[in-house]
Amino acid sequence: xxxxxxxxxxxxxxxxxxxxxxxxxGRISDHTIxxxxxxxxxxxxxxxxxxxxxxxxxxxxxxEKIVEAPALIIAVNEYNSNxxxxxxxxxxxxxxxxxxxxxxxxxxxxSTSPGQRGGAxxxxxxKNQFPRFGGNVVESFSLPxxxxxxxxxxxxxxxxxxxxxIIDVVTxxxxxxxx
Length: 179
Ligand SMILES: Cc1cc2nc3c(=O)[nH]c(=O)nc-3n(C[C@H](O)[C@H](O)[C@H](O)COP(=O)(O)O)c2cc1C
What we know:
The chain is α/β, with parallel strands linked by helices.
């Protein structure tokens, strides 16, 4: 049994990526999972002056949570073909605490958006960048057209093809993180 930390890189109280995190983590029973809702955390905008004043409490808290978990499930939202400023700011802070803040982590990376590409550009950005922080993205998927493919009331993926694909990804991830 491996400890998994899961969160969405969104500051929205109605984040569709957080909804996806809840759906996916609900499918995993053979590992211990902690879900964080980053909407509940304040992260000041990074600046060298702020860094010299000391790392913010929430940055240290998130960093420690990441250190404790060998596996991560991260869902990224997409703003203007990249991750949101909110999540980029978190990456910047964490990289200042420790350049290799994802060292040795096995990561399931996801994204969703209301659009056709499901946040694929934000996902690609993270896939390319996470290795420089020591992370190993072992599985990934994007869920396009969130409002057509997901029923927020029932909390289920209604598109059978995507649902089956996600079952495969989650099963493979669960196996790969077995210690
Ligand atoms: C400033 C802004 C830019 C956006 N740019 C994109 C984009 O490039 N691609 C995309 O698929 N969705 C884009 N969206 C729509 C977001 O994917 C949508 O707001 C989604 O709900 C964000 O995910 P979240 O709810 O998990 O925060 C944008 C939204 C905003 C507010």
